[in-house]
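Appendix B. One record, verbatim.
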Amino acid sequence: QVQLVESGGGLVQPGGSLRLSCGASGRIFRIGSMGWFRQAPEKQRDLVARISSSGSTNYADSVKGRFTISRDNANNTVYLQMNSLEPEDTAVYYCYVEAMTYYSGPYSGYWGQGTQVTVSS
């Protein structure tokens, strides 16, 4: 019903920057909160940043001041600008979107396929 396509991952040196994008398409009546999670090898998937439909944001302590989440409501897209990247940021990053697929329906959660971010010299 709702498809998420991520892009922007890759290999970057410590101190570098990357920008992740995630576009939502399909049967969408309304999108609620959007966010990014990440999962390093053998670790759980953790919230990185979240942005509500009204634009309020929250971040994991480890990325505050370095990462910025934003959204383009007209294009159903969420972004994650990552600056001052550290080796500890290496992980697969997943987009997460809460979407309503019909009028007055419930919000359901949808995941992107994941994009690898590797921070290494």
